[in-house]
Amino acid sequence: MSSISPQAPPLPIDLDERPKVSDIQWDLLVGVVPLLALLPLLLEVWSHLTTSQLYQYAPLIWIIALAMGGWQAWKSTGTRDPIRRRTAVGIFAVATFAYAASAFLGSWWLGLVTFILVYTAWSIGRLGDVHWANASAGSLLLLSTLPLPFGWDQFLHSTVADWATWSSVSALDAVSIPNLRNGSRVSIPSASVTSSEICGGIDNLFAFAAVTLVLAVFRSASCFVGFTTLALVPLWVVVGYAARLLGYLWVRANVGGSDALDWNLSLVHLGTAILIAALIFVTFSLFRSLFEPIRGIDVELDPVVSSLNRAVCWPQPDPNEDLVPSDPDELSSYLRVKAEYDEKLAQYLTHSWTRDVA
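RE: above sequence
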């Protein structure tokens, strides 16, 4: 009687090694290769932004976003969530169509949109250890360098300049200093300043908006705090520009000599830029302290507090969600739900963009 030896069991799959190969493939296919294809358009985008009056800060934001993505990727593995996988692939497909449209139309603006979409697809699929909103933070920074269409950016810039000019004229009237406003020019008996002198350059409205987003991202602020601070940026820019205009008038009326004049004007310019940045930082810190989540409340006992915490914390987690209920019945329910969630999470295969295992 012949005996049949049992088949040897398959070797276990090293799940710790598979993501490394897969992540490298994702980095190449969705990161490196698209960037090389976009390089000619990106060079044109770089030229347009660096010579623009409003977007000279863009290269610095690009460097920050790419460095942040690289640092997060170094510490992270690909996502295990199938929904995020499909979302990343879908965004990359949209980026492919945007790239084709930008090449066909010769549009550097669409080229920048393609670059942002590619970065978003890469980060959502690659940074699997963080919330998808945190993974998209770099895309938000890149979005702050995208010029608004239809000349809306120039409209906002000129509106802020008009408000600053009106505010400075009102301040001069309040202290009974004779002045004349002629369009964008404000004059006093011994000096005059145009709004283009105080509102141009790298420290404009959009640059300070980008600084606010960088602050919110690196301080891990909630969307509520970040966008509330962002909404007040135009107000602080108007305050700073009005102070700069008044400072320019005072310097030109009281300082003689071209070298001393230029030096003092530069000090006024730098001082008002620091003032705007300080106002943004103080506002951010105030909102962050005012809208701290309410801690130590059992989520099951106070759903209103839980809802408020989720609203002001998102995408950061509600700190009360990790509290273990003290009631025995609620504790058993909590442990059952947590076990079901952990079991469902464990069913996801470790992230792999290729299906090379039989």
